[in-house]
Amino acid sequence: MENVHHLISIPLLVVYISILLGNGMLLFLIKDDHNLHEPMYYFLAMLAATDLGVTVTTMPTVLGVLWLNHREIGHGVCFSQAYFIHTLSIVESGVLLAMAYDRFIAIRNPLRYSTILTNGRIMKIGMGVLTRAGLSIMPIIIRLHWFPYCRSHILSHAFCLHQDVIKLACADITFNRLYPIVVVFAMVLLDFLIIFFSYILILKTVIGIASGEERAKALNTCVSHICCILVFYVTVVGLTFIHRFGKHVPRVVHITMSYIYFLFPPFMNPVIYSIKTKQIQSGIIRLFSLPHSRA
């Protein structure tokens, strides 16, 4: 595939720049526009920051391989990259859960929405999501530092993933094989189930609203979040299925699924919210019309 590295790098660079601009714009709008200083948009800012973190962590080494043929990465840098990649993936799941909680309170208990989701509580939720993810991933990354590596030091991706690195270790890796499965079931799957059941309760509440216009308005506030949930969890399931059961699947499929997992949600989330959220649309219009109005 080396002869097409430069061709591959062009669409990846376009996607990379789009992710930086899209999520950066969301963060700027939410910070700059006082109309967006609400819990829903604070959680959206967390999602955008997480997406930026995942992309900035992975893409520089990918582009380094494709453009500069830079094929080496130090152990410490590799383990740090793996830590941030996996931590931010757990963070994204936690942020999506927090966003579901926001919609749950907004629709099931609207009169107490502002008193329940105060700025202090939102900050605590964000810190809790980050702490949970960071601590849960730390044990397997610490063990990577202890392992001897006597096999080939060739990774299957242009960035470091835990499941790639442990294949190179010459030690008992049973814990490192089983622990990630526990994390996925105890956190990512549990997050999804809580989100799923919260939306069942939300739907039950919406159906009970007498006014058709109010029902449509309530559902519309959830559409963007539901789309982001599907984008994230469908790619998680696809990547997990390929890694666990795709032993005979061509290597290029593994690599492609990894890129889809790390790039598709950060690329799509700003697009979804820009299309489906009127407040974000209004903010974008004001942002780009500002120079003309000054002129």
TrEMBL record:
Q: Name one GO biological process term.
A: cellular response to lipid
Regarding the membrane, this protein is recorded as: Multi-pass membrane protein
**SUPFAM superfamilies in the cross-refs:** Family A G protein-coupled receptor-like (SSF81321)
- Xref: InterPro entries: GPCR_Rhodpsn (IPR000276), GPCR_Rhodpsn_7TM (IPR017452), Olfact_rcpt (IPR000725), OR51/52/56-like (IPR050402)
**Which ranges of the sequence are coiled-coil?**
none
Main localization category: membrane
UniProt function note: Putative odorant or sperm cell receptor.
Quote the protein name from its UniProt record: Olfactory receptor
Its source organism is: Galemys pyrenaicus (Iberian desman)
